[in-house]
Specification:
This protein has 437 residues and is α/β, with parallel strands linked by helices. The protein has helices spanning 3-8, 26-33, 42-57, 75-84, 93-102, 118-126, 138-149, 185-197, 220-237, 263-280, 294-297, 330-334, 423-427; strands spanning 12-15, 18-21, 24-25, 37-41, 63-68, 87-90, 109-111, 130-133, 155-161, 183-184, 202-206, 243-245, 287-290, 301-312, 317-321, 340-342, 351-357, 366-374, 381-384, 405-410, 413-418. The structure holds ligand LLP.
Amino acid sequence: MNYQEWLKNKDLEYQNGVLHIAGANTIDLAKKYGTPVYVINERLIRERYKTLKQVLDSENKNNQIHFAVKANTSLSVLKILLSEGAGFDCSSVGEVHTCLKAGAKPEHIIYTGNMFTNDDFKFAVENDVLVNLDSISQLKRLARIHDELGKEKKIISFRINPEFGAGHHVHTITAGKEIKFGILDNQVIEAYLKAKGFGFKQFGTHIHIGSGIINPYDYDKAIDKYLGIIINLADTLDITFEFVDFGGGLGIPYRPEEDPLDLEVYKEIVVKRSKEAIEKMGMEKPAIKVEPGRYLSAEASIILTQINTIKNNGYKLFAGVDAGFNTLIRPTMYGSYHHIISCLQNEDRKEMKYDIAGPICESGDILGKERTLHELQEEEYLAILDSGAYGFIMSSSYNSRPRPAEVLINNGEDMLVREAETYKDLLKSQIIPDHLK
Ligand code: LLP
């Protein structure tokens, strides 16, 4: 894929010398809303959802995509996905609450927490939300809370750790013996046997092996192991599954030299094999579920940021911008690459190498290292791509810098969907004790 196509695939294009997102002029947006600002492209979210849905449908229509809300909890994003038919994967009560507020029904939600508290369970049971347990030890408390609330024990699921993990960074690999998530192979029978014993009537199973998987073959071993485990489970305990969940993890091309994830290969490895396994178990019912976060939302957002300082220290060139690791933590936290481009098409200028530096008072506040760009000037704008997953949601107000606004582009119109925080907001939850007044 050439570079123009790569950009076009993210619905980005230079028109009349200016970068446009979904047909909207990025410089006009930056001036109208101020910077830094997150810009979300509604049509790309819909497009990604439809593409994945078609791929799943082509092999097994009994499927459900649950958007992993941890990637992006903007109510607009949730409502867009809900209108497409998505369900949600939540990792906390806060996320479940947000999804319910966005209009999701409890049956659209899977709550895959870890280190659940009694309050977490209480909220889930009171709201009829399916809990996907992370440890056998949690079962007893969950069962007791059902009894205390007088709720019928309907469906239960466990997160299984298939030991073969993958991901873009060691912190995003979520399977393996050393990893805190899920239950290992040798505890699976015991877990479901106990669940039966506590009176749960229906069962699901789940894995999530990691995040940022651009090579679909990385799923290969984990899927084989998982299917082996659940075939054995169904056989041994004579149970059928309501759903078999393969988690998320589907990567996106952050770098221009990367191609998008090959969904056809993903389908072969995950969907086709699971269908065969389900047939082998003689089950008709189970839906297959997947839980992508990044795949659905990452490429749909860019951050617009203004250059305020071009600094040549005699050794290195820095382009200082008003977005920093408070706005987007991924480069600093994981060393992640986010492609950064000028909003002005400036190819007539000579090429230079810059470190794109944020305003945070730490040397690690570099959004892009040694990036080759056509000469930049102070007061011009840059776009940081692929920031729609784990972007705003992981932002902070570090250095007392308020979080930015979010703007949605739909049908050529731009609309504010989240106001920027104010300095007042930064202080609003603090209480000054009497003796300091
Ligand atoms: N399901 C479960 C149970 C998960 O824990 C996750 C992500 C997902 C689904 C969605 O994964 P995705 O499809 O988005 O890869 N902050 C990191 C990513 C952490 C992901 C944690 N769990 C980053 O910025 O790359």
